[in-house]
Amino acid sequence: MRSLAWIALVACSSPNAARPDATRAADAAAIPDASIDAAPDAVPPLDPWTAPLGSALAGVTLADGWTDLRALPAPLAIAGGWTDSLFATPDGLHLRFAYAPMDFFDFFISSGATQTITGPQLAGDLATGFQLFDATLTGSGWTIASDPVDDPSIVMASPATNASDDLLVLTEFPASGPTRLYYSSAGSGAWSAPAEVSIGSAGANDDNAKIYGELATSVDIYFESNRGSNAQRTLYTTTYGSGAFTPVAKLAGIATATSDDSQPFLTADEQTIYFTSVRGNQYGVFTATRQADGSWADVHAIASPTTVTTMYAGNVTIIGEASVVSVTEGDLLYMMCGVAEDRHGSDTYGNADYVALVPCVARRPK
Question: Does residue 266 sit in helix, strand or coil?
Answer without folding.
Answer: strand
